[in-house]
Design goal:
This protein has a single domain, classed as 3-Layer(aba) Sandwich (UDP-N-acetylmuramoyl-L-alanine:D-glutamate ligase). Helix content is 48%, strand content 15%. The protein is built from ten helices and nine strands. The protein has a nine-stranded mixed beta sheet with strand order 2-1-3-4-5-6-7-8-9, with helices on both faces. The two termini are 17 Å apart. The relative contact order is 0.17. The structure holds adenosine-5'-triphosphate (ATP), 2-(4-methyl-thiazol-5-yl)-ethanol (TZE) and magnesium ion (MG). The site of 2-(4-methyl-thiazol-5-yl)-ethanol has 10 residues, from loops. It catalyses: 5-(2-hydroxyethyl)-4-methylthiazole + ATP = 4-methyl-5-(2-phosphooxyethyl)-thiazole + ADP + H(+). Catalyzes the phosphorylation of the hydroxyl group of 4-methyl-5-beta-hydroxyethylthiazole (THZ).
Length: 261
């Protein structure tokens, strides 16, 4: 499927996206999913996630503000997604920062995500590479993470998406680079978390590799448009949601900014 077909399908089907994300991201991630045309639900109680996953089109798990009850819910949700044949997307926020985060992420990877989406430092650290990242923000370039992304995709049999100035997506065999967006984007918290939620929505209606590329192309185009009017990070966030809601499938038909490798 092409990016314009994927966006058109999302907007017609309006898939329900089950998001387990962090306290920082919950509001903007839900608004991003809605602006693109899908339907978010932030559901993280351990007693209900396994019942919610089967009614959703896809699941996303972000470990940003984890704690034991949340981790248990993430594990149950991931297992339910696998059992129901629903794709799920993992966002390994700052997993290298503490042993607890690292152990949780390794456990979740073992539960079969369809896509792992992280910034360059997060993806490099998943392959044991030294990184300059300290917390949730990346300290490394995407170019330096490409080899790790390919190795990770091959080892886990999943799609890996690395974000930064120019994004990189790979399934271990095919790869793509996506350019666009603006340097204002990393100045707004939870843009990456929101992207992960949107990627889940697109993975509900398209194969994982194409869905990941489509999510990045959509973010790049919305970022380009918002940068034309924004005066800084505050107004950019508002302009970004407006732009995302105004992008039509045909606006992405030329695949501008996507380099298929
Ligand atoms: N310098 C940049 N120029 C253009 N776009 C960028 C730049 N940095 C990040 N982006 C875009 O911002 C979005 C979020 O990517 P980023 O790598 O900042 O995620 P992240 O570090 O996981 O964010 P967070 O943890 O705050 O949610 C992606 O769409 C990415 O393409
Ligand atoms: C700032 C922050 N802290 C934990 S999660 C999060 C959102 C960006 O990843
Ligand atoms: Mg992040």
């Amino acid at each position: 499927m092409t990016t314009d077909q994927i966006l058109a399908t999302l907007q017609t089907q309006k898939p329900l996206v089950h998001c387990i994300t962090n306290y920082v991201a919950m509001n903007i991630a839900a608004n991003v999913v809605l602006a693109a045309g899908a339907s978010p639900a932030m559901v993280h109680a351990e007693d209900e996630v396994a019942d919610f996953v089967p009614i959703a089109g896809a699941l996303t798990i972000n470990i940003g503000t984890l704690s034991p009850a949340w981790v248990s819910a993430m594990q149950k949700a991931a297992d339910a997604a696998r059992a129901a044949g629903k794709p799920w997307v993992l966002d390994p926020v700052a997993h290298f920062a503490t042993p607890y985060r690292g152990e949780v992420v390794q456990d979740l990877i073992g539960r079969g995500p369809a896509i792992i989406r992280g910034n360059a430092s997060e993806i490099m650290a998943l392959r044991g590479a030294a990184t300059a990242g300290k917390g949730v923000d990346s300290g490394d370039s995407v170019a330096d993470a490409e080899a790790a992304a390919i190795a990770l995709a091959k080892a886990q049999g999943c799609v890996v998406a690395v974000t930064g100035e120019v994004d990189f997506v790979t399934d271990g065999t095919r790869s793509a680079r996506i350019s666009g967006g603006t340097e204002i984007m990393p100045m707004i918290t939870a843009m990456g978390c929101s992207l992960t939620a949107l990627m889940g929505g697109l993975a509900a209606v398209a194969p994982a590799f194409e869905a990941a590329v489509a999510a990045l192309a959509l973010f790049a185009e919305a970022g380009n448009r918002a940068a034309r009017t924004a005066g800084g990070p505050g107004s950019f966030q508002v302009a970004f949601l407006d732009a995302l809601s105004q992008i039509k499938p045909e606006d992405l038909a030329d695949d501008a900014g996507v380099q298929w490798l």
